[in-house]
Amino acid sequence: MRIRVATCLTLPEPDPDEELLLAALAEAGVSVELAAWEDPSVDWDAPVPAVIRSTWNYTRHPDAFLAWCERVARAGLFINPPDVVRENAHKRYLLDLAARGVAAVPTALVERASAVSIDALCRERGFERIVIKPAIGAGSWGARVFDASDRAAADAHLAEWGARADMLVQPYLPSVEGYGERSLIWIDGAITHAIRKSRRLAGDEESVSGPFEISDAERALALAAIEPFASRILYGRVDMAPGLDGRPCVMELELIEPSLFFAYSRAALDRYVTALIRRVRAASASG
What we know:
By secondary structure, the protein is α+β, with helices and mostly antiparallel strands. Helix content is about 35%, strand content about 25%. The protein has helices spanning about 20-25, 60-75, 80-90, 95-100, 120-125, 150-160, 175-180, 215-225, 265-285; strands spanning about 1-5, 30-35, 50, 80, 110, 130-135, 145, 165-170, 180-185, 190-195, 210, 235-240, 250-255. Strand 12 and strand 13 (about 250-255) form a beta hairpin. The two termini are about 15 Å apart.
């Protein structure tokens, strides 16, 4: 059995899952090829099952990346499916979550090149301290926090970044500083474990700890967020934190290339590998 694991030519930071995943697949008798999605020397039209792992530069080239997903999926099994990837690439999904009754951090979407006053927007939404970040982005890229006294600086940041991209304006959640942002990992139909991430904005490094107990409210929220995709995906991650009302709310729903923090749960790694192999065999048997 041969599987391609998709990465990128230059990782912006080390992938903590890579070594563990490749070793576990090799132990299971899988021939693994780690290949960069944007590498022109790779024959991505070959009918080799492919799973996304660390394509972490896709946010800089979203159109090319989504076209690549479609191309590889035409050749064979592609995980997670390209239509799920397309829907998840733009964080307007936070508005979709809220529309179907899933608690998500309040979000104002400012479309590219829109003339928007941060002061007016915040007065309308009741926002005080805010976060502004790209709607297609990852990590701390383009994300900044602004106090209520910094509306002019916030306007400048929105104008600079919003000239070329859709942007999000959200209330800053103080809970990320103490309780932290919790990442619940979902693999093949089950939540396997949870870790805590420290606050991460422009220039910050990510700090991870865990695993942590998962409350009933957190579990229910994660399952509700993933429910529409559950029958079609192998993996996902739901990042959440207590909102201003103290109840957990979704900050990110990661269905493309999230770190799954296998170092904190060998059971999660084994579940991932077993489910991936099962999907590859099923695709091969169906023709």
